[in-house]
């Protein structure tokens, strides 16, 4: 029997840990060097530290909350067709407590107001944000392609 249920697939494997029990939240997966303490995201696939050249990187789960380092709002789709999500979109960097900077899309912003020419105030450097996993687009087979994003923490 065929089902019309869409599958949710990650844009790239092993970027985040999916919750396995109620009450758990997704977390990004990084790498940490036990020799020098350097932290990387995404996790390093090679087993040595780029910073100190020592072997033995460990997978770690990163904090779910961070602060916006910088961002921009993209008002038109980029050439080449590599981004298939909605436009406009916000894109930038988030600093996590582990002293790693994560490249990310932002969500939870009122892009309709931005399109109407109103001020865009949901995002600002230094603002608190929280990790979410959301759909970025539907692939050719109708699956929902999921990615990590950060959204402003409501005060």
Proportion in helices: under 10%
Biggest sheet descriptor = 5 strands, mixed, barrel
What is the number of beta strands? 10
Strand content: 35-45%
The total number of structural domains is 1
**Mean pLDDT across every amino acid position:** 87
As residue ranges, the low-confidence spans are none
Categorize the overall geometry.
globular
Q: Order of strands in the sheet with the most strands?
A: 6-7-8-10-9
What do you see in this structure?
This protein has one helix spanning 111-115; strands spanning 8-10, 16-17, 27-32, 39-40, 58-61, 65-74, 89-96, 100-106, 128-138, 144-152. The protein is mainly beta and 155 residues long. It has one domain. The N and C termini lie far apart (47 Å). The model has no long low-confidence stretch (mean pLDDT 87).
Write the topology of this structure:
Elements: E1 8-10, E2 16-17, E3 27-32, E4 39-40, E5 58-61, E6 65-74, E7 89-96, E8 100-106, H1 111-115, E9 128-138, E10 144-152
Parallel strand pairs: 1-10, 8-10
Antiparallel strand pairs: 2-3, 3-4, 3-5, 6-7, 6-9, 7-8, 9-10
């Amino acid at each position: 029997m065929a089902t019309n249920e869409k599958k949710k697939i990650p844009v790239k494997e092993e970027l985040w840990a999916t919750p396995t029990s109620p009450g758990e939240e997704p977390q990004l997966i990084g790498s940490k060097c036990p020799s020098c303490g350097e932290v990387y995201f995404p996790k390093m696939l090679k087993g040595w530290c780029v910073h100190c050249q020592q072997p033995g990187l460990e997978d770690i789960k990163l904090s779910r909350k961070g602060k916006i380092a910088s961002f921009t709002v993209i008002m038109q789709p980029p050439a080449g067709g590599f981004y298939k999500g909605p436009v406009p979109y916000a894109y930038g960097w988030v600093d996590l407590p582990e002293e790693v900077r994560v490249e990310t899309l932002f969500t939870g912003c009122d892009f309709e107001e931005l399109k109407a020419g109103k001020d865009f105030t949901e995002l600002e450097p230094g603002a608190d944000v929280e990790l979410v996993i959301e759909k970025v687009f539907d692939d050719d087979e109708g699956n929902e392609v999921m990615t990590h994003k950060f959204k402003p923490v409501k005060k």
